[in-house]
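F.,

This is the one I mentioned.
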């Protein structure tokens, strides 16, 4: 027997992905590790989000509506998925989601304010971003130090993925995985510590090695003094000889 209500329910569920995909603005840009430097020129509004974040899902409607007006506002509206771009979450020091940045010709400002389409539009039209101080230069995403932070974020994500693979796919107990990573971390720490100590000891020597260097420097100075005295004596002798010849 044909059940119309059940058929309608199945039909609605089947079309839900299409409906939600249609709500995404065609003007909304997706940034990644490969193209994020595009934001260093022009004016941008960027949202950091994650698929599992409820607050991010609540913001999507307003953010897509805002992106629809990006052409009229002469601005680029973009989003970054931190789950697929962990390095960028490190570069921008994203500690909460969703996080929104305003970027104008390479100057970064953290957006703090109401999160509605009209509020975003007013923020751009009235240039309210001028009321906010840019982030400190040492936190700029394109700086070398933030590049190092990005590497550590990528490394931490790789370690997490490896842990999940070992536990879920290979059946390794969680305690064994944690023990393995703890041992590797400890070993790497010891190796790096040893290298740093060697470098410091070479640049700023101490102990017996420093004493030898001081003694060698002292001998070199003594030899230089003797050589100078010898040259002076020879010069005096030569001068006296010339004087006698003249007489």
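My design for it:
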């Amino acid at each position: 027997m044909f059940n119309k209500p059940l058929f309608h329910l199945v039909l609605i569920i089947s079309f839900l992905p299409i409906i939600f995909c249609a709500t995404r603005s065609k003007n909304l840009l997706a940034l990644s590790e490969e193209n994020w430097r595009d934001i260093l020129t022009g004016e941008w509004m960027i949202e950091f989000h994650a698929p599992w974040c409820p607050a991010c899902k609540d913001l999507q409607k307003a953010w897509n509506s805002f992106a629809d007006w990006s052409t009229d506002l002469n601005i680029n509206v973009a989003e970054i998925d931190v789950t697929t771009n962990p390095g960028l979450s490190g570069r921008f020091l994203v500690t909460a989601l969703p996080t929104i940045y305003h970027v104008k010709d390479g100057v970064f400002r953290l957006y703090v304010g109401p999160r509605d389409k009209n509020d975003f539009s007013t923020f751009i039209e009235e240039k309210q971003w001028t009321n906010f101080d840019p982030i400190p230069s040492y936190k700029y995403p394109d700086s070398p130090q933030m590049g190092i932070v990005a590497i550590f974020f990528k490394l931490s994500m790789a370690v997490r993925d490896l842990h999940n693979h070992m536990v879920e796919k290979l059946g390794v107990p969680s305690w064994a995985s944690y023990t393995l990573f703890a041992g590797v971390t400890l070993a790497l720490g010891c190796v790096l510590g040893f290298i740093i100590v060697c470098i410091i000891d070479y640049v700023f020597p101490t102990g017996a090695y420093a004493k030898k260097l001081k003694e060698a420097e002292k001998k070199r100075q003594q030899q230089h003094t003797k050589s100078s005295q010898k040259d002076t004596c020879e010069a005096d002798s030569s001068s006296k000889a010339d004087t006698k010849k003249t007489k």
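The longest strand covers residues 43-49.

Talk soon.
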